[in-house]
Each structure stands twice: as structure tokens, then as C-alpha cells.
Amino acid sequence: MPGAPGSAATGWWCVMNLFDHAREQRLREEQPLAARMRPRTLDEFTGQEHILAPGRLLRRAIQADRLSSVIFYGPPGTGKTTLASVIARTTSSRFEQLNAVLAGVPDIRRVTEEAQRQYGEYGRRTILFVDEVHRWNKAQQDALLPWVENGTVLLVGATTENPYFTVNRALVSRSRIFQLKPLEKEHLQRIARMAIEDPERGYGKRRVRILPEALDHLVEVANGDARALLNALELAVETTPADEEEGAVVDLAVAEESIQRRAVLYDKEGDYHFDTISAFIKSLRGSDPDAALYWLAKMVYAGEDPRFLFRRMLIFCGEDIGLADPRAVTVCEACAAAFDRVGLPEGRYHLGLATLYLATAPKSNSVMGFFDALAAVEKEREGEVPSHLRDASRDKEGFGHGQGYLYPHAYRDHWVPQQYLPDDLQGKVFYQPAEAGFEKTLGDDVRRRREAQLAAAVDRNACGAPPEILTFSPQDRDAERWLARTISGIGEHLADLRDRLFDQAAPQRHWRILDLSADTGLFTWEALRRVPEGGVWALTSTERATAALLQRAAQLPEERRPQALSGRLRDLGSLLADHGDADVRFELAIGRNVLLEETDRTAALRAVARSLAAGGGLTLAESVPRHAPRLYDMVDTTTLGAELAARLRQAEEAIYDDPGDAMVNWDAPDLEAWARAAGFRDLTLEVHTVRTPLPVTRGVLQRWFTTSPAGSRASYAQRLALHLCPEEVAAVEALYRQSLAGRTVPWQSRTVHLRATVG
């Protein structure tokens, strides 16, 4: 029987298996170093902490095997394909891989048909990794769309081009976008050392030593590209003969020969082209010659067409310099003509000359008035030419055209006031002279000759530029509606407080946020909305509050739910460790009244500081109870008699003057001192007074005048009893119940907003 144990067929099959195994082993060993050193797990992955640090959404989704469709976007050598291979090793789903350069619609059809069969027969999902996904045309991307949309296929795309411009909008809207950044120097150094020390995939079995200056050169020239670094390192090691005593020593000379040209992130049709020319023009506009020369050099180094650069500079002369320096366009045109005559490499002098002239020239964008006039022509009712401006050569006698026109040269200074705009546009201003260069002298004449002052005041407040997003998620409409309903249930003043704190903190979408006061969920649900690719940890004071929080969060997808902790603020470190998140560091900690119950507030804030990432921020809103309204001011105490009324005031004031009561014995300066002692810096404190109506219900009065359980904070009546006899307390209670029951009284409170960061 063919294939039976001991048969010739079985022996031949075993021999073939051995040959296949040996061939695969040889192929693995002969792979380039960059391929051999590709990380196999998330723990081996180096860099991209903004999306892969502990607690980030992408890391949690990969570890939990709950990945949705994603697109990785970034320059070469930053780990896009590596992330896909990590996903392939981690997931229990079926993994398919296509390269968009080689694959077409038939390949997509084959993958999707098999994905349908696998899901129908075994309930197994298919993850499709498409490298260079931007290379697919619209028809090819459309062929994949239905299967991504119905969940048959989960797309993992990788691209060096901006997916918002190169990937089908429908695919983008159904995918999370994660942007990968060039690796930092410390990342590249770590990768190089791993390659030298790894005995299995690197050079750990060989005696290889790289000198520090050689490693620095390789890292510097690799410019954030791990593949370029490893390729250069491999060339350096393989071409360096081994010495019997020291082995192979890679010195600076070898490193310089191995990687002679910096890998510049630039192409003539993609994002780097547009981003770099944008930086060049904005540097010219900002009159920064150093930055302008840098971006010019980067483009010239990368092979950009100098004629394109001159075209952009000529446009700049009209758009951004204009009449502030009318010679700018002449100089730029002369430099362009000189470049055409001289050519490269000497023509670079003329590129630099034009750049320096434009960067240092006075600036004016007053020519933009033409486009305002063009918009007026397009949008506004067409205005007739005023009669005195019309052509008089044909119908002066019949229609009176041209009559009343004042000939400017017949007047002093060759100018006379008269109407030139149509009636409907009288008073419209299109030209605003700049207060710079040659145009400054023109502006005085223009303003003097206008019938009314038409110069507009322009607010030129300096504003900071926003962080690179680095991620995008498609909108989960069910989750968003649930979050909207949850958030809308809070009071108006609390909503204002929440929005103010979040707007000031300005969290990025991939941040990890720690809600320090999650009992009410005031900040938790808003945090989930603000950081869809990050993560939210919620600290509650009791297990009961935690259970309530998790019960409400059950409406959300599992990967978007907050991570719940329960305990005291000062125990935050151990709570995170017990939860398995000891390595998680937060970009933002936010809370309201988190210090009221703390006795050692410096220790509590120090625990928060230790949980934050470097540069992480703390945002708190802390009520200051000592400034709370006094109840005796809300009633007419004259009915108690002068003596009891005075003693009531003294008794109530004593509540807020108690130096041993941690809840009331502090103010804003104390909060600042605690935060500084805990290691926070860049402190900003704002004191806000909030006025809200307080309905005095029976329940409120009961809380004021009841006896609190043992071990809890004493009630208002118990505090009064320290200074008044029982009969007097009863009289005060009767007055309050008679005067306040059922009323809504104005309640004024003072809150300190603290913002700070850690080093």
C-alpha cells in the first residue's frame, strides 16, 4: 500500500521533508540581516511608543486578538511590515499577505473566497495584510471594500503615502489609521546592539565589535530608518576581516564606506515632497533664512527639480512680498534666468541667493485683494459701471455716458475724489497696504485718499501649532450615541467644568488618560470620546462604584471599555501593579475633588506623578470648602435672639477654622506647595467662583441635622453641638426647616484649577 509505514513511498517522503527543512533553514540563514532581525513579538519591537506603549489601544487590541481593520502609514524602515508580522504571530485568525505592486483583482477574489469558506465552515476570521496598499488603483481597492465592510476580511494595510490621499475614502473610513514616525537615535542604537549580540539571528556567535563613533555615524546617516541601518551594519561586518585577537572591529572608516549617503525622506510625488516644499515656503513667509536654506538644501540634496523651486519662489514673490519690495520678483526672475544659463552645480548659488533675498525681504500679502475682488464678482450681484466712468466715445450725447467724469491730471497731485466702484460696492475694501518696506509709503497715500477709514484691525496673536496625529478611528455610531446619552445626563455646571478641563489639557487621540475621580463618571466617558486610539483608566473609591462603572461600560466594545481600579489615590502604584499595568504611564491624569479625603496630599500627588509619562500632565479641579457659603447667612437669625445668633455665627465659623480638619484647613497656595513637593513643575493655578442653585429638600435638611455614623465625618448639627447646647441646636434646626425647606437658594463655591507637568 503506497505511503504505508516502512514503504518506499514513506521513505521518499521523509527524505523530501528533510531536504525541504534544510532548504528553509539555509534560506533563513542567508536572509539579509534586516530580515533576520525583524521583531517577532511586541516586546521585541523597538520604537513607536505613541501607538505601542503599554496601555495603548493598538497594543491592547493585538494582545487580545481583537484587531479591527488598520492602516499603518509612515516612512520606510519604521516597522509597518514588522507590525504586520507580529500580528500574524499573535492572532488566531487566518493570515494572508499580498503586495499591492504584484497583486490584482484575481488575487483579491481568491483571498476573499477562501475567507468566506473559512468563516462559513470554521468560524475563523481572515486578516489580509496588503503591503504598499496605495499602489492599488480605485478598482482594486473597491474589489476589497465589500468584504472589509461585512467583516469577512480584516484589512491590515501598510503605506508610505498619506492614506487620506491615496487610499479609497470608504476603506479609510472603515479603518483605524496609525502613523509611524522615524525612529529616534536611541532606538537605532538599541537595534544595532541587538543585531551584534543576538547569537541566533545576528552576529552573537562571531566576535564583532563596533566602535562608538562608528555606531554613531551609522545611526546618524540612517536617519530614522532601521532597515538602512541594518543593511549598512551587515555590509560593514561582512567586509571587515576578523583579527585573531580582537575579531572583526568596525571602525569609523568602515562605517563611512558602508553608508555614505543619508537616507532623506523625500519623493517627488508623495507626502514628503509636499510637506517639505510647504515647510520651505512657510519659512520664507516667516522670514527665517536659516530654516529656508535648510529645507532648500534638503530638496536639492534629494534631487528636486530646481526649476520647480524657482516657480514656487516666483509665486511667493507675488503672494507674500508684493509691493513691500517690488524688486523681489525681478531678483528672483534674474536668479532663475542665471540658473538656466549656468546649470548645476554652480546654479545652486542662484538658488541660495534667491532664497536669502526672499526670506529677508519685507512681506505683504496685499495682492490677495485681487482674489477678494474676484470673489465679489463671483458671488455678489453684478454692479453696473457708474455712468461717469462709461465710454463716452459712442453715446455721450444719447445716454450721457462719461458726463461728470473728473480728469485726475487736471487736479493737484493728479488726484481727485470721485466714485469708481459700483453703487452696491461702495465702501468695499479689497486692498490693504502693508506696514512694511516700500508699501508702507503707499499706504499713507491710499488711506488719506479714501473717503473713510477702511483699514481693518487684524488680530495677530501668536498661536502654538497642534501635535501630530498620529491616529484615526472610524466612528462607532452606536458607541458614540451611548456615550452622548451618558454624558448628557450631568449637570450644566459640571459639563462646563468637564469641557473646560479637557479643552485646556487638549489630549491627543492616542493618549492614555487616568481619571482620578471616576465614581460619577464625569470625566471617564468624555475621556473615552477624546482618546479613541489610546486608553482610559478609571480610579473609583469603592468596589461598589467600580461595579456600577463596569456595568455602564458593558454597552461599549470590549477594547474601548475603561480599565477600572478601586482604592485610595496614594495606593495608585500598587493598584496598577495588581491590575497588570505596572508599566503603563499616562499622558494625562484628570480629576475633581480627589484630595478632599486625603490626609497626606503630597504623598497622594506623588503617587500620581509616578504614574505619568515624561512630560505628562495633571489637571485637577479642587473645591475649597473653607470658602463655602454660611448657612446662617441664608436665614433671618434675629428670631433667635442676639446672643444665640452671635454664638451660631461663631459655631459655624469654627467649622471652617479648624486647623486639625484636613478638609477645610487649606487654600490655593497650599495646593500649589503640595504639587511642587510631589515633583510637579510648570504649575498654573486658576481660582473660579461657581454659582449654582441648591434645592433645599427634606433630604438635604436631614443630612445637615442628623447624627453621622461612627467613623464618618460629623454632620453640621454635630459640629454646632461642640459650641451650642442641645436646646440651642434644636432652635437652629427649627429655624432652618421653617425658612429653607422647599426653597432653592443660591450656592456659591470656590474651585481651584491646577495644571502641572512632570519632568
Keywords, separated by commas or semicolons:
759 residues; alpha/beta; Rossmann fold; Helicase, Ruva Protein, domain 3; Zinc Finger, Delta Prime, domain 3; seven-stranded mixed β-sheet; six-stranded mixed β-sheet; 32 helices; 15 strands; extended; disordered N terminus
How does this structure look, described?
This protein is an alpha/beta fold and 759 residues long. Among the domains are: 48-179, P-loop containing nucleotide triphosphate hydrolases (Rossmann fold); 185-258, Helicase, Ruva Protein, domain 3; 271-364, Zinc Finger, Delta Prime, domain 3; 475-624, Vaccinia Virus protein VP39 (Rossmann fold), CATH 3.40.50. Helix content is 46%, strand content 13%. The protein contains 32 helices and 15 strands. A 7-stranded mixed β-sheet has the order 11-10-9-12-13-15-14, with helices on both faces. It has a 6-stranded mixed β-sheet with strand order 2-3-4-1-5-8, sandwiched between helices. Helix 10 packs parallel to helix 12. It starts with 7 loop residues before the first helix and ends with a strand. The model is unreliable at 1-6, 450-469 and 484-490 (pLDDT under 50).
